[in-house]
Amino acid sequence: MLEVFTSVAQTKANALAMVQRVANPYMLQILINLFGHCEPRNQVMVLKIIQNLIRIGIPSEVFEATIKTVKAQPGK
Questions:
Q1: pTM of the predicted structure, to 2 decimals
Q2: Which 8-state DSSP code applies to residue 57?
């Protein structure tokens, strides 16, 4: 399903706009936190989601802002 959604987002402007609305630093931070706390099987799914966000073309600034947010978390 993830692959289908990615291919649609790559070809349809409306779908891409929808993905870009939810692919923000806060949501990516949640994905990164999930990766660190879930079972290996689920970690694979998180990685696939992140890979597909990159394929879709989420701006690098979103990823950079996410890294800054993660680094700023207490205890990191």
A1: 0.71
A2: T
